[in-house]
Design brief:
Elements lengths: L10 E5 L4 H12 L3 E6 L4 H9 L4 E5 L5 H15 L4 E4 L14 H28 L4 E6 L12 H21 L4 E8 L8 H5 L1 H10 L8 H12 L10 E4 L7
Parallel strand pairs: 1-2, 1-4, 2-3, 4-5, 5-6, 6-7
Helix pairs in contact: 1-8, 3-4, 4-5
Bound molecules: NADPH dihydro-nicotinamide-adenine-dinucleotide phosphate.
NADPH dihydro-nicotinamide-adenine-dinucleotide phosphate binds next to α1.
Amino acid sequence: MSDLFDLTGRRAFVTGANTGIGQAIAVSLGQAGAQVICAGRSSMAETLAKLKEAGATGFECLADFADKDGAVQAFDGAAEAHGAIDILVNNAGIIRRADAVDFTEADWDEVMDVNLKSVFFLCQAFARGLLSRKAEGTVINIASMLSFQGGIRVASYTASKSGVAGLTKLLACEWAGKGINVNAIAPGYIATNNTEALRADRQRNDDILKRIPAGRWGEASDIGGAAVFLASKAARYIHGAVIPVDGGWLAR
Ligand code: NDP
């Protein structure tokens, strides 16, 4: 039981690890013993400092995940530089807002490229590496409540996150028999930069809080805890799950 959640000796690649949910996941995995490669387009200095504080090892990998070839090159380069990767966390994500009738192709493509296309090709690169060395591994994709629900003015985001949920299930079916766990976390309303404007709008904030059974916004560390669970031996028979971590929002 004591080592059920111990990730010592495992190496994780976390996208969008400089801030918000990605940073919390990186730090949580590090606290559980994993080495963490913090990947994204901005400096990882803050996350690396937090990892160091936690006594964990971290590395920076700079890449723009809007370009799937650049994403895969960064992933392969990180594995070459730091050693084989056992845990892939696809967290980097963006949102663009407009009415569906006004939605532009540029906003559609940008969101799809970051939230779905790079996610698939990173999963592919990860699985190819695992299969070539006959190793086991874990993919954790970050989905959303909008993987299950409609929403308004976020057409490409909703489509991309529904796609992430579907892709998670498909890859789980293809790879479960090969020792690769593929699962997703669907965060509810989590207090990060991404949701700052919502929280600043008093009326919206009150409306949201009234509908969350837990009665509070989620913290990024709530998602970090779920990621440690999914990366651990405790989750070894979980394949293709899209787990809401939302204070009960979807249960309502
Ligand atoms: P943030 O906006 O705080 O973080 C998003 C992360 O993605 C940042 O690290 C950002 O880097 C990175 N990123 C965006 N575009 C790119 C790119 N082209 N290349 C590399 N990195 C990129 O948001 P959250 O932490 O809130 O969100 C993290 C994930 O959780 C996202 O997938 C989001 O959709 C999902 N989510 C969040 C919810 C919430 O309530 N917060 C709810 C449901 C899902 P940079 O800082 O450089 O822009």
